[in-house]
Amino acid sequence: xALAGAxxxxxxxxxxxxxKKKQAAEKTHATEAQPGANAAxxxxxxxxxxxxxKERGATNEPGATNEPGAGKGRKTRAGQESATAGTxxxxxPAASATPGAKQQQAEQQRKGxxxxxxxxxxxxxxxxxxxxxxxxxxxxxTAASAAPSVSAAGQQNxxxxxxxxxxxxxxxxxxxxxxxxxxxxxxxxxQQVPAxxxxxxxxxQGSDQWQGPQYEVFRSYHPERHDQGWYRSRYNRVELIGGxxxxxxxxxWYPAWxxxxxxxxxxxxxxIYVGQRAExxxxxxxxxxxxxxxxxxxxxxxxxxxxxxxxxxxxxYQADQGLTTxxxxxxxxxxxxxxx
Length: 340
What we know:
single chain, about 350 residues, mainly alpha, about 55% helix, disordered N terminus
């Protein structure tokens, strides 16, 4: 009986062993037939790896999916992008992707963008002002560099404009100048001061625009050629002055063309005002030259000849005094100089 019981006890084990093997085989086959079970392990492994990457602060790879852990990856990447944007604006390094850091990064980004916008809006406002300053300076620098060279007469006029503008002569200096030229006699200098030639059609340029009775003799003047008898029969004084003959009439000296053809050196063809005392024209011209020289208008020689340099000095003085610019010795100019 004991032997039989043992035999029977062994048979179930022997029978159960093939059954267990068959169940194990079926279980293995069932496991292979369920890919979802095997796929869960890689997902878990990937989740663990992703968590490790997150702890190390690594950047998620692009193309994250909606699988578990992908949402966290997008948040982490968004935090890094926010930090990167903050770096581009403010120049600060990117912070960690913690919730507090994200909020701080967003705040820094907003401030950085506001600051950037302020700088951008300020630049157009300040640039035109600076450009305007450059422009206001450029012309000044451009005008100085492009200024043409001037003659000696132009330089003397420029000096007059800066130094002696609208200045009245000193009466004591005027008397001193007149006393120095009491016996003055002009000499012809055709090389330095070229002579003018007779032209019966000549008219004083611009005289038709000079208003007032004091300029009538200039408006009506035209050269005439006559012999000595004609002049002596009409004028009390006809004199040889500075190489040419002049006749005096009512405060003015005029060239006496034809009085003596061998003595017709005239530096200026027109009336010369000297006043009712009938002082010789060369002496009055010398007084005017000396006075304009002291005032800075005339840089030439005091020679008693009404040449181009003297006439340019007269023009500058007349302009500064608000007189009609006749480039001649007229009544208003001689009165202004205190020499009448």
